[in-house]
Design goal:
With 135 residues, this protein is mainly beta. Helices cover 4% and strands 52% of the residues. Strands 1, 2, 3, 4, 5, 6, 7, 8 and 9 form a nine-stranded antiparallel sheet that branches. It is globular.
Length: 135
């Protein structure tokens, strides 16, 4: 029988010059989007487009529940703050997935709804090669 990943197992850390900030306790969603660019290799009498892989990139995004007096989040996720985002969807157990992503925070965006919980969302843009491995 298949095992499913449950949200409470998530380990999510933002490591930046101000320290390590655990985001897992407040997270609602995490998205991970690796990508690659392609260079066209078609020439001459080719009848089909040819491509080769070029530069790889990635982005990530998180949505968090805002806490009162959350000034560390403001500083840690300010636009352009560099660091490393660690995403471990199945926790820290041996042989479980671990994504190590050097990146920049795109800046925390806040939503202050009238009759709901305040949410923070932040994108992350890659700054070098990420690794996808296991603990």
């Amino acid at each position: 029988m298949a095992e499913f990943i449950a949200g409470p197992t998530m380990v999510l850390n933002w490591i930046y010059s101000g320290g390590t900030l655990s985001l897992a306790g407040d997270y609602r969603t995490v998205s991970w989007n690796p990508s690659v660019a392609y260079a066209e290799t078609s020439a001459g009498s080719d009848t089909h487009v040819g491509r080769t892989t070029a530069l790889k990139d990635a982005t990530a995004a998180v949505t968090l529940v805002a806490q009162t007096a959350g000034t560390q989040i403001n500083a840690a996720l300010a636009p352009g703050v560099g660091g490393t985002l660690i995403i471990q969807p199945e926790g820290t157990a041996t042989n479980k997935r671990k994504i190590t992503f050097p990146c920049y925070a795109d800046g925390a965006a806040y939503e202050f709804p009238y009759n709901d919980i305040v949410a923070i969302s932040c994108g992350f843009t890659g700054n070098g090669a990420h690794t996808e491995g296991v603990n």
